[in-house]
Amino acid sequence: MTALDLTLLLALAVSLGLCAWLWARRQPVVIRTVPPPAPAPDQLEALQQPVFLAAADGIDAGVVVVDLARRVRFLNHQVETLLEVGPRPLGQGLIAMLRDHQADALVAESLGDGEPRELALKPIASGRTLRLRCTPLSPGGQVSGALLLIHDVTQISMLERARRDLVANVSHELRTPLASLRLLVETVQSEPPPAITHRMLGQMAQEIDAVTQLVDELHELAQIESGRVTLKLSPTPLLPVVERAIERIRPQAERKQISILAEIHAEQHLALIDADRIGQVLLNLLHNAVKFTLEGGAVVVRAALVTCESPAGGPACDQPGDGDWIQVSVSDTGIGIPSQDLPRIFERFYKVDRARTRHVGGTGLGLAIAKHLVEGHSGRLWADSAEGRGSTFSFTLPVA
Cα–chain-centroid distance for residue 364? Predict the structure, then answer.
């Protein structure tokens, strides 16, 4: 082997050794995924702002954002309607917008301790009942403002009040006959003379009839209001319906020497009605007319065609659609209704001056039932009266 060959072998060995050393000290190759660059803060705000504005204006509640100084920084359109404020009064104090010291104090307390709070408001200007909920805003753990949600709970409040009034009125109407029945039963249990016992039993029957009538009318009113009463509408002449109602009430009128007349000027027109239900309405109005009319008085039932043209020209024409209607009215020469009581006479259990009408009895549900039945025919029922000069109850029915 020549010297050149030895030199080449030595160079090859050195090269292999160097490669082995480098392989032993190699570093693992790490492949890193570089995330896309985050959008700038102004880009995030541009993405979120339209969504927030759309949500704030689409929510069925008022939305108000205030800062630590309780200055209004944002409000949606619903706030303007609920509080009847000007167009977006940004920058002003919360109390200037709400006009309620309790609400302003509630927001101040919520900003102070970071706890949410609720409050009921009744703004004088709007007359609504509002529920305000204040939630502090603390994105970084530090309170920087508050979010106020304002809900209109007027309808819920009215329903709750109606429920309480119904319970109170039913309790009141049942208390009197039940107390009377208790007293009569105790008297009969003491074994009085037969004549007194017979009279007491008759009074007990009358009280039971009164309670039964109350329960029946409550059940019927509940059925009508819930929509479970189906009206059987058909083209019907009105005269026979009026005559049947008058004949049913005539015995009571004759006992008080009250004359009942019928003036029907729409005989050639048919009404689209449920004859039995409209007969019930007429009977109720006639019963009230006879009940509140003194002896020797008069009651008149009138029916005539009325034509309404837009815009509506009064109670008779204030209908879902203008056109031809049959207006029926029941007038009497009775004691009349005070003007302050007229707006409430169709409420359940409402009675005009119980001291003046104590002797006439009744449950106070008849007019409420009549109103629902007339409105079920797409008509209207209203009253005109002057105290001491009699009353006129009128309702409209659609022409077939």
Answer: 21
Integer Cα distance of 310 and 329 in angstroms: 23
What does the block give as tokens for 29? Answer: 């190759």
* pLDDT score recorded for residue 316: 60
* Residue 322 pLDDT greater than 80, yes or no: no
Greatest C-alpha distance within the chain: 161
Same-domain status, 371 and 304: yes
Strand 259-264 relative to strand 298-308: parallel, antiparallel, unpaired?
A: parallel
**Alpha-carbon span 225 to 77, nearest angstrom:** 34
Domain co-membership, 122 together with 172? no
- Which residue shows structure tokens 């004549």? 195
Half-sphere exposure (CA, 13 Å, Cβ side) for 174? Answer: 10
What one-character DSSP code corresponds to residue 93?
B
Nearest alpha carbon to residue 174 among 205, 207, 203: 207
Q: Does residue 51 form part of some domain?
A: no
Within a domain: residue 128? yes
Q: In the predicted model, what is the mean pLDDT of residues 152-165?
A: 78
pLDDT tens profile 236-281? 999 999 999 999 999 889 989 999 999 888 777 899 999 999 999 9
pLDDT winner (highest mean) among 5-19, 35-49, 323-337: 323-337
Q: Is the pLDDT of residue 47 over 90?
A: no
> Please, what's the b/e burial string for 356-387 (b: 16 or more CB within 10 A of its CB; e: otherwise)?
eeeeeebbbbbbbbbbbbbebbebbbbbebeb
Cβ neighbours for 196, distance < 8 A, ≥ 6 positions apart: 187
Measured from the Cβ of residue 155, the count of other Cβ atoms closer than 10 Å reads 10
151's CB contacts (< 8 A; 6+ apart) are: 60, 61, 62, 130, 131, 133
- Number of compact structural domains in the chain: 3
